[in-house]
Amino acid sequence: MPVSDMELTQMFEHVLKLSKVDETQSVAVLKSHYSNQRIVSAAMDAAQRLGARVYGIELPASHDTRAASNDLTAIVGKTPLTGNVAAKEALMAADLVVDTMMLLHSPEQSDILASGTRMLLAVEPPEMLARMLPTEEDKVRINAAAEVFKAASSIRVTSAAGTDFIAKLGQYPVMTEYGFADEPGRWDHWPSGFLFSWPNEGAAEGTIVLDVGDILLPFKTYVQSPVTLEIREGYIRKIHGGFDADYLESYMTQFKDPEVYALSHLGWGLQPRAQWAAIGLNNKDDSIGMDARAFEGNFLFSTGSNTEVGGPRNTPCHMDIPMRRCTVTLDELPVVIEGRVVAPEHSVG
Asked: Quick check: pTM over 0.85?
């Protein structure tokens, strides 16, 4: 059954409390015409119930003709906030911004976070928000994994399908998503539940084999036939296989930018309430696919931009590809074995 407006407001109140919103805080709700109005209203009502000073900022949509769909992740970097200095300053004045529009991977988002403003992205359907309502336990579990990740100098990923891939780590930070923004300058996403970092520049090598049932985002489709990606010096150098390989390569090629083939963030899912099957159960236009990114035990890797951590690649194509049944090893320590998360994450508490 659908989530009621009252339930949605109560959920937002819970998440805003976790995000340290109270009567001393100001909360800006960023929206455009395509925002989910129920989410906008619930965020504003919940913030008011907590005593915060609340204001809304609405911006006109900004279409990029390179986008092949209306998915909010199909083109990254350029947003309705691009070039709007007054609106950016108004957002920087808030303690917390609830983003119902999607600023991810934009320089404006980086500037807002650098000012100390916290940001919470919320663009998924209310029913998905309810199923993955964040908890303090999510934060504890994901932060424990992050400490292990931070100590690692390399990540290796293998699978029975043929993946054998290694990347050196340390140049870029480890990032966590546990569903609420509780520290100055923190960005998070409700719903979520995973962590990731970026390979050192030019230091990713090997083979990644996408197997049947792995997921291609933003396509929001399951792989139907194996796709082999040959990785050299941090870039996908060759894509081969059947229809899925042709489809993927054709999509990336049309951007006419060699940086779309660069490996971006790498990590694994830690959200037991996320569902691998959800992509096939939801209308593609209603969701950006956070179940796929967060389901427990996935290996999630991406391509394209790394500007959000100060990297050099600002490219509009950003693929997220969650994979099942992989083994993920940090230095000599396995953290995921054949798609099953192992200690230390589950030993916490």
From this structure: yes
Rounded to 5°, the CA angle 91-93-96 comes to 65
12 and 4 Cβ atoms separated by less than 8 Å: no
Residue 110 sits at the vertex; the CA angle it makes with 134 and 130, to the nearest 5 degrees, is 15
Task: Read off the tokens for 214.
Answer: 């792995």
Burial 217-252 (b: 16+ CB within 10 A, else e): bbbbebbeebbbbebeebbbeebebeebbebbbebb
50-94 per-position pLDDT tens digit: 999 999 999 998 766 676 676 766 667 678 899 999 999 999 999
How big, in percent rounded to 5, are the helix, strand and coil portions of the chain?
30, 30, 45
- Mean model confidence pLDDT for the chain: 94
Domains and CATH numbers, the chain: 5-123 (3.40.50.2300), 136-347 (no CATH)
CA–CA separation, 217 vs 240, rounded Å?
Answer: 18
Pairing status of strand 299-303 against strand 263-269: antiparallel
The Cα diameter of the chain in Å comes to 57
For residue range 174-219, list pLDDT tens digits in order: 999 999 999 999 999 999 999 999 999 999 999 999 999 999 999 9
DSSP letters for 136-164: HHHHHHHHHHHHHHHH-SEEEEEETTS-E
Number of residues assigned to the chain: 349
Q: What is the CA radius of gyration of the chain?
A: 19
Task: Report the chain's terminal Cα–Cα distance, integer Å.
Answer: 33
- With CA atoms as reference, report the closest residue to 230 among 162, 276, 331: 162
Residue 206: strand, helix, or coil = strand
* Alpha-carbon distance values, 245 to 159, 237, 259 (Å): 18, 13, 18
Alpha-helical (H) ranges within 19-135 are 37-49, 85-92, 107-114, 126-131
